[in-house]
TrEMBL record:
It comes from Azospirillum doebereinerae. This is WbqC family protein. The lineage of its organism: Bacteria, Pseudomonadati, Pseudomonadota, Alphaproteobacteria, Rhodospirillales. It holds the Pfam family WbqC.
Length: 233
């Protein structure tokens, strides 16, 4: 089985879902430490004025805090983010069905950042017809670090292949995966331009941008990535 592992991000970009589409099991790394400073765990980019605009959910920060322990600082961000999406995408071809998909997410009764993100990502993956099974890292009690942690999680779910993003090459040691009998694949993702609500194309935006503009056809962006950008190391 092919396994991908990633922090539970807030309405992440298409590349995140392309990684899910390439895997049989996707593990939310909810017990990783919340990154210091700005992070995709609690913010995402939408289209505004011909470029990207950051949409951030306020969180309560503590030192050395696991993502699963992070709580929202207040609740008004849900209304604000919905209003931003309405203002930006109300003329988009798939505005109404996608907002109908998002409204129950914004109404989810939780103050947990990881619970909100995992629920949202899983729901959007279903909409994109991504068949992978989602698991939560903290449920396996793995206490190792770095590559060993990834290897232990892959083993815990019975995986034989680990799918890494390009950024993983900066810290992963291929030899460790080989010694563990796990194939390491490094997958890049370069989205093809698609029509947006403004002229030109801005890459790296939230998956929501693709959904508002393409609807269910956004899944074709993922198929393209899965078929053409996943070379074995």
């Amino acid at each position: 089985m092919k396994i991908a592992i990633h922090q539970p991000n807030y309405f992440p970009w298409l590349g995140y879902f392309a990684k899910m589409a390439q895997s049989d099991v996707f593990i939310f790394l909810d017990d990783a430490q919340l990154p210091q400073g700005r992070s995709y765990v609690h913010r995402t980019r939408i289209l505004a004025d011909g470029g990207g605009f950051w949409m951030s959910a306020p969180v309560r920060r503590e030192r050395l805090q696991a993502i699963r322990d992070v709580r929202f600082a207040e609740d008004g961000w849900r209304r604000r983010h919905r209003a931003m999406l309405f203002h930006t995408y109300r003329q988009a071809p798939f505005f109404e069905p996608v907002m109908a998909l998002l409204d129950p997410l914004f109404s989810l009764e939780t103050d947990s950042l990881s619970r909100f993100n995992m629920h949202a990502v899983s729901r959007l993956a279903d909409y994109l017809d991504i068949p992978c099974r989602c698991e939560v890292a903290s449920s396996y009690g793995v206490t190792s670090n770095s590559d060993d942690r990834l290897i232990d999680l892959v083993r815990a779910v019975g995986g034989a292949v680990y799918i890494s993003g390009e950024g993983g090459q900066n810290y992963q040691h291929i030899g460790k995966f080989e010694a563990a009998g796990i194939e390491l694949r490094v997958c890049s993702y370069k989205p093809r331009p698609y029509p947006q609500v403004q002229n030109g194309f801005v890459a790296g935006l939230s998956v929501l941008d693709a959904l508002f503009n393409l609807g269910p056809d956004a899944r074709h962006q993922l198929t393209y990535a899965a078929e053409e950008t996943c070379p074995s190391v």
